[in-house]
Amino acid sequence: MNTAIKDAAFNPRDCGSCPIRHRAVCSRCEPDELDRLDAIKYYRSYEAGQPVIWAGDHMEFVASVVSGIATLSQTMEDGRTQMVGLLLPSDFIGRPGRDLAPFDVVAVSDLTVCCFRKKPFEELMASTPSIGTRLLQMTLDELDSAREWMLVLGRKTAREKIASLLAILARRDVVLGKTPPTSGMSLDLPLTREAMADYLGLTLETVSRQISALKKAGVIILEGKRHVIIPDIEVLLAETGDDVDGGPLT
Amino acid sequence: MNTAIKDAAFNPRDCGSCPIRHRAVCSRCEPDELDRLDAIKYYRSYEAGQPVIWAGDHMEFVASVVSGIATLSQTMEDGRTQMVGLLLPSDFIGRPGRDLAPFDVVAVSDLTVCCFRKKPFEELMASTPSIGTRLLQMTLDELDSAREWMLVLGRKTAREKIASLLAILARRDVVLGKTPPTSGMSLDLPLTREAMADYLGLTLETVSRQISALKKAGVIILEGKRHVIIPDIEVLLAETGDDVDGGPLT
DNA sequence: CGTTGTCTTGAAAGTTGTCAATACTTGTGG
DNA sequence: CCACAAGTATTGACAACTTTCAAGACAACG
After folding, report:
1. Rounded mean pLDDT, A44-59
2. Listed residue (B145, B250, B158) closest to B213, CA to CA
3. A2-149: which CATH architecture?
4. What is the dotted CATH code of the domain comprising B2-151?
5. How many interchain CB pairs under 8 A, A with B?
6. Contact between B105 and B50 (Cβ < 8 Å)
7. Measuring from the CA of residue B200 to each C1', which nucleotide is nearest?
8. pTM of the full predicted structure?
9. Residue B164, CB, less than 7 Å from strand D?
10. Residue of A92, A155, A165 best to disrupt the B interface, most CBs of B under 10 A
């Protein structure tokens, strides 16, 4: 709750100071296009744990994640759930041209999103190629990572799954400049054991056991439950089962 | 091989008679736009089993599947492979704006594709909104189905996976008008047991056993190895583990 | 008619899930 | 300030499911 207020510290009316200005769906817009987007945008915040959208809901808006983390997931009748996406700042929520949400979206941390009413956004997109082009690029990237995740879900062992998740989180922190890709780097887990299990297609007990196993093997060091130190990044990458040619974390 | 020749029976220079004209990436093009696409297109055929692209290759073209079936898949160093897409007529291969292929593409039946050299296609896309718009729509659809498949891979049992695959194939035949969605409908499996296993994240032995189990339970009837009769479609859908509200095969 | 690729089935082993008990952390209220 | 409750995480024992290894059936093809 405090976080949400703090995160809204930039001027919510000024796209120029927006922290996701250069990566979100609007990143290719010219100043005049940005003005038109500005006219239909509004911010919305959710507390950690709150639902943003339920599968089957009518979507009245599309949105960009400004700060915080949300998950995209699917739940079966008997309660089994599978996460199908992790939404980080600059990621896009919703789909122009469809009005029923196919998946649940839940805030896992305090979350602020920049919403656009769907109808005006669709009209704007039709007249503004730079939005559609950027959205296509983002969607193709997401499709590639969904397909990479299918390999993890379908073919990797529990231990490889955990190592893969840690490697992904490490790579993301490096890309965002949070830490250099050195040995000895550390990272915070943004997810509970249960959320990790939902991401990886495992039970939370198996997640816990495999994290303990990686700790016992010296691949990672735990500080508390959520902070991980990686003594040797290459050792971690070797545990993912992936090809490691072409250098680490590229 | 005969198939490839037969499939090329329509005039390959006339987009008007193209069997995927109304569903492929070009489906929204006006006649003049089609002429420009026409100028950079060429057909290419592959025999069943042949590779179309290897992961890591430079992509010199993008393409639409005209006839036949191809798979998109990923292989680990030790040989474990996961299929991440099934490419059917009208599906798009390749990605504007990237020149290394992220996945292997293999023809599983005789295959004919309509290729566009990548550079000219990208230029044309920049000046022809109807292509980009259609490609965005197709990519969003593929992303949704990739995410649905993540639930299958991560959370379903072997039996549910087989039932889900059969349900998908049945739904596709209904949508294409090959058969009405009646009880007693039948379908041909376009994949070997091994390819099904790669799609479902199973071994081919488990695929075989679960097909036998569904047969023994009366959910399906086998005629030969590749032809399936579905006595009661709702019984099959119940085996998928999915919610079946809202009518079958919708 | 043998070869090859595909498919089925069995038995044993291994991995992961299930059920259960316990510990740790945090926040609330007495 | 302490006690308690709730949420989160760890660990053990056992069960269940899927894989692995192996043998053999079946069909297509030269």
Report:
1. 94
2. B158
3. Sandwich (2.60)
4. 2.60.120.10
5. 106
6. no
7. D18
8. 0.92
9. no
10. A155
